Every structure is written in structure tokens, then in C-alpha cells.
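Hey Z.,

So I finally got round to the pyridoxal-5'-phosphate thing we talked about over coffee. Here's the setup:
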Amino acid sequence: MKSLSQRANGVTPSPTLAISAKAKEMKKQGVDVIIFGAGEPDFDTPKFVKQAAISAINEGFTKYTPASGTKELKEAVVAKLQRDNKLDYSANQIIISCGAKHSLYNCFQAICNPGDEVIIFSPYWVSYPEMIKLAGAVPVVVTTKEQDGFRPSLSSVTSAISQKTKAIIINSPCNPTGSVYPEELLRQIGEAAVKNDLWIISDEVYEKIIFDSKEYISIAALGEDIKSHTIVVNAVSKTYAMTGWRIGYLAGPAEAIKAMGNIQSHSTSNPNSIAQRAALTALGGNQEEVSKMVVEFEKRRNFIVEKLKEFEKVSFHKPEGAFYLFLNIGSFLKQDSKGVKKINNSVDFANYLLQEAKVAVVPGSAFGADDYIRMSFATSIQDLSKGLDRIETALFRVGVF
Ligand SMILES: Cc1ncc(COP(=O)(O)O)c(C=O)c1O
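And the result:
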């Protein structure tokens, strides 16, 4: 076979795939595996949203739309940003893409030159470094710590900025830590970006899944200067339990958005027409279902937090948003244990839990933090309870550690 591109060879395969494939295989064979790996709400898409899609099909809304999305959906996004985030954009500052992942991909392709640096905070969402590399740029990782609530200090941000820095990515609420950045920190990062003329990529896909009655603040709302440097990334995926529909969007300066639209026009062309109709209905319709889902996520967050407080040898930052808890399992690593082969890293640890507890979690190495595992609480309290009991037995009762 002829050789592949350096680009393709440079992409790291996801270390999480092997474990989730194993968990699925075990499930298929009838093993009662509890999955704490889900990256999506376990709720169904609201009925009225599904109905809008059915109507779109029946009406024959099944042809190409403009490559960057329909005018109606862009206007619905404009109205949403005004209603929820007090942000004023016009339709030519919006592009609709095939999920936030695609939005981010377009974004890096449009702003990065080879050798440019993009600052990301670890623990980071798995795809950021790979997408940055696919755009020829270099991810520069700034580590955040559990004891700081996984929030970066301003000095750690400014000392990572170099002549080559092109952008900073913010993801609040964060996947995988559930950390939410306070207004003051957002303002500091925003001002540093403006001063150094950097792009701010604000990934807001978990915006609505926020607990303890906190109000969500978009960094773009903190002043015109900051807004003019920001690309807001969002999607209907997590908010409306619409992960499979693949609709995400970007808002930003018109010239940048136009460049992203050009790139999209030569790759996917328009996002699915039917899903665009469904997204239009979701964004403009009754938001009650969203609130109900968040109440349920908060109950589960409280449940998992209380239960894990009883565990010895682990620690965590109480998630303030999203539906993940990032558990520090560092004290179990690299120690001799009876009966199991030495557990060297988070992949070994996740494999141990899968074998011994029949619980699937995601190893922290996927997020650049090997002392951790990610546990998703996008699953019922009943399963959370059962899964946590099994983990407790596997870690503390069988006398392995
Ligand atoms: C932080 C973050 N950004 C973006 C995405 C991608 O969202 P979408 O499903 O809309 O592509 C995800 C999905 O897991 C995510 O966790």
C-alpha cells in the first residue's frame, strides 16, 4: 500500500475506544455491564421536535439548503443568542454545521496556519488537540488542577502565550471536569486575548446543563472588544438530547464566519435539511423539557457526589455543570496489588473496573489527565447506585488494594 499522509499518521487514535468496544462486546454476550461512559443525555429528543422533523419530511423539505444553513435557522440562532446570552449578532455572523464537532473543525481550518499555537486547558475534551493538529497547528496544554476547581490562573494563561499563539479554547461547563468558570476569570482570559490579539474559541455546548441555580455567562457577553475576538460554538446536541441529529453552530465576526462557510461548502455542504427544521423548532419552542432534564441531572450529580464522599483514597471536584464527574484515582496507580497485575495508568484502572466491577468508565488519559477516570451521570439513579456499589466492592472490599 502507498503511504498515508503525515496528517493522517499524526492523529492519535482514541484510547477510550478499546474499552468501550470491550464493554459493548461484554453486553452483547449477556454480561450485565453498567456504562458510565456516555457522552450524551440518556433522555429522548422532545416529541414536538421530532414532530417538526416528520412534518419537514412530509412537506418535502428534503433538498439541499444553502451550504451554511437555512436563513430561518440562522435567525433562530440569532434570537437564541439574544434571548439567552444577551449577544447581538446578525444572520451573516452565523453558520450552521453538522454538530459542534464539525463547527470546531471548520473553525480551526479557517483560523490556523501551520505552526500556529492554540492554548487548551487540560483536562481537555478529547478532540481539541487532534483537530488543532489536523489544521497544521500545535496544541499548547496549560494544566489546571483539581484543588483549583480545574480553573486556570491568569498567570498560567499569560505565560503560555507566545508570538505564535493564535487562539485560546474555553470550555465551560467543561467536559470532562464539570468545572464552570466564574465571570472574573472569563474577563481576565478575554482581556488577555484582546491584548495579544488572539481568537477565543468558546465551546458552550453544556451551557444549559448548569447546577445550583448558577447563571451561565458567555465570555462574548463581557464587552465588545472580547466579542470581536470570540467565536461562540454551540449545538442543539446536549441541550435538547439531539446528539444524533448533528446540528451545531458558530457565531462570530462576519469575515471569519464567511471563511468557515466557504470551507464547509467544499466539504459537507449543508447540514441535514430535516435536522435543521428540528433544530429550528427546538431553539424557538418551549424550553420546559430542558429545565426538566437539568433538574434530573442535578439530582444525579448530588447522588454521585454524596456516594463518592464515602469512598476512601479518591477525590474529586464537585461538578458545577455538564454530566461528568472526574474522579482522582491516582492513589491506586503504580502500587502492588494482590491478585491483579499492577495498575500502571488510567487505562489499566478502567480495564480493572470493567473486569471486576462490570462498570465501564473512560480513562483520564483521553483527556490529558492520567490520574483520573471520567464517570458520566447521564444514566439512571438506579444504575448509578448499582455501579457505584460494584466499584466500591471492587476497590475496597475484595482486599485487592
Ligand atoms: C466539549 C464538547 N464540545 C463539543 C462536542 C461535540 O458536540 P456535537 O455532538 O454537537 O458535535 C462535545 C461532545 O461530546 C463536547 O463534549
